[in-house]
Amino acid sequence: MSEGQSELFGKSPAIHAKIGGMGALSHIRVLDLSRVLAGPWCAQNLADLGADVIKVERPGTGDDTRHWGPPFVLNEQGLETKESAYFICINRNKRSITVDISKPEGQEIIRKLASESDIVLENYKVGDLAKYGLDYENLKKVKSDLIYCSITGFGQTGPFSHRPGYDFIVQGMGGFMSVTGEAEGVDGTGPQKAGVAIADIFTGMYATTAILAAVVHRDQTGEGQYIDMALLDTQIAVMANVGSAYLTSGEVPQRLGNASSTIVPYQTFPTSDGWMIVAAGNDGQFRHFVTAGGEAQLADNPLYINNPLRVEHRKELVPLLEAMTRKKTKAEWIELLEKANVPCGPINNFKEVFENEQVIARKIQIEVPHPTAGKMKLVASPMHLSKTPIEVRMPPPTLGQHTDEILQERLNLDESSIAALHKKGII
């Protein structure tokens, strides 16, 4: 253990050995006041990179996502635990403390924890934490170089700032659903949300990047700062070329289902036993595709001889290609097209995902010990660093699992003081 690490974790090297590690952020302390998805996703990124993350939860109930099930994890006897699949996917490598921040004693605990933290992360409604003296303006008085990140639906400014923000609503407001779903006139037409909460997840990712930039700035200048993250801002930002296309042309993008607006064929195709994706990005790949399917003449058809013409005549071409792809199985097509160097892939269900040889080789599924579940399956972090690798030091915590430990370690409270806080319902 380095001298800096010893000082950081005070008088408890044994605890540091348990919660620390060799991650790039092993010198960073995070006080996580966030709940549900965007904030916890960000905090888990920081924790995976080695930061000591304390997750603050409500006594008795905790983070709402603890109750978002089924499914709940089964223990080794096959009995259901209280650990929801939703909660465990975003809270590994954290310690849980329960604190009632509506009470003055609880607010004082948070202030003391913040005073020795590098980062505070929260996703309360605009102005809510100011009522408790736990907003940035108040906490920077106890820690002048504090990095404080707020995540809300619509940001700290603007006419919508006080509205609650939900991922589903933001996917609609931010334009994503206007270009996702089957095209007009196709069976099942209509706007469609993503199958996962992308506005929350991307906001968590952007928040991670912003926090790390603030850490670098603090290390260079000694200055902390405030970070204002909004789901709506993020949703619009990640529309990428779609948003840019509108700003460039003034034309409102439309839904195309699984097809591309600028490349044909670049979409899903039916096979005799399922679906596959073909992404023929140039004329040569298109020729290889139709040749593999026994329809080489399509590549010489004047209407389909290059990509701009294929885009123009997609309504005539795509049914011909679908008739071709239905003649073989998904596996047969994947084998043929891989040999022909045509970009392609299956559409896997999650059983197929985790049985895939590439997924297995990359060790994306991991198993960790857990105090109530025995063994718990998780999805590994996708970050692979050669010098400071990701470590799963702790499983997702049970509610308040580390409350006493943290109060002893960080606030130097003795057993009688902690017992008094429990009795009052503060923790």
From TrEMBL:
Documented EC number(s): 2.8.3.16
Alphabetical list of InterPro entries matching this protein: CoA-transferase_III_domain, CoA-Trfase_fam_III, CoA-Trfase_III_dom3_sf, CoA-Trfase_III_dom_1_sf
Keyword line: Transferase
Pfam families xrefs: CoA_transf_3 (PF02515)
One GO molecular-function entry: formyl-CoA transferase activity
Protein's UniProt name: Formyl-CoA transferase
SUPFAM superfamilies: CoA-transferase family III (CaiB/BaiF) (SSF89796)
Organism, scientific name: Polynucleobacter asymbioticus (strain DSM 18221 / CIP 109841 / QLW-P1DMWA-1) (Polynucleobacter necessarius subsp. asymbioticus)
Enzyme type, top EC level: transferase
Domain of life: Bacteria
